[in-house]
UniProtKB/TrEMBL annotation:
InterPro entries: AlkB-like, AlkB-like_sf, ALKBH4, Oxoglu/Fe-dep_dioxygenase_dom. GO terms for molecular function: demethylase activity; dioxygenase activity. It comes from Bradyrhizobium australiense. Pfam families: 2OG-FeII_Oxy_2 (PF13532). Keywords: Dioxygenase, Oxidoreductase. This is Alpha-ketoglutarate-dependent dioxygenase AlkB. Signal peptide: none annotated. One of its GO terms (biological process) is demethylation.
């Protein structure tokens, strides 16, 4: 893990980790087939509809009701991948929510933070690279950082990268898929 972190300059968001070649090209091809076969729907943000298409499993956030709702069970074909992500995250990692996303050419995602119901966020990049951008306000200026996520790579956001920094993806230049894995926040505090 230390070798991977040494690749980042000092301005990288705290808690951001990156693993290149997390999965094989063969598994990537299989996962793209599985995700593209899902009943993907345009992302719903209240009354607005996003251009990316998604499928949520385990839980989903309902923007109209502003709360988590049950979703379809996590598909069994994701079990081996979830085990690998949980091993990467460490002994206390338990994935509770999965989001599969399809980005067509020209589609991205605007600046945001994931909902506070979730704790650590793991993202598996499939199909094409993308610029995973981070920003946080420092005084009257924005501090920015860009992580170039390669196909088959996994990032993990925790700590500052998860709670203080916003993130976005500019419009992609080639079709891209992602599988996002989320753990739940400790609601006792």
């Amino acid at each position: 893990m230390t070798g991977q972190l040494a690749l980042f300059p000092e301005d990288r968001p705290g808690g951001l980790q990156y693993a290149a070649e997390f999965i094989s090209p063969v598994l990537e091809h299989e996962l793209i087939g599985q995700v593209s076969a899902l009943p993907l729907q345009p992302f719903q943000f209240g009354a607005f509809e996003g251009k990316r298409r998604v499928a949520s499993f385990g839980l989903r956030y309902d923007y109209t009701l502003q709360r988590l709702r049950p979703a379809e069970p996590i598909p069994r074909w994701l079990d081996p991948l979830i085990e690998k992500v949980e091993a990467y995250g460490g002994p206390s990692t338990q994935i509770a929510q999965v989001l599969c996303t399809e980005y067509e050419v020209g589609v991205g995602i605007g600046w945001h933070r994931d909902k506070p119901h979730f704790d650590r966020i793991f993202g598996l990049s499939l199909g094409s690279p993308c610029k995973f951008r981070f920003r946080r306000e420092v005084g009257e200026k924005w501090q920015r950082y860009t992580l170039k996520t390669a196909p088959r790579s996994l990032y993990m956001m925790s700590g500052e990268s998860r709670r203080i920094w916003e993130h976005s993806i500019p419009a992609v230049e080639a079709p891209r898929y992602s599988i996002t894995f989320r753990t739940m926040a400790d609601r006792k505090s």
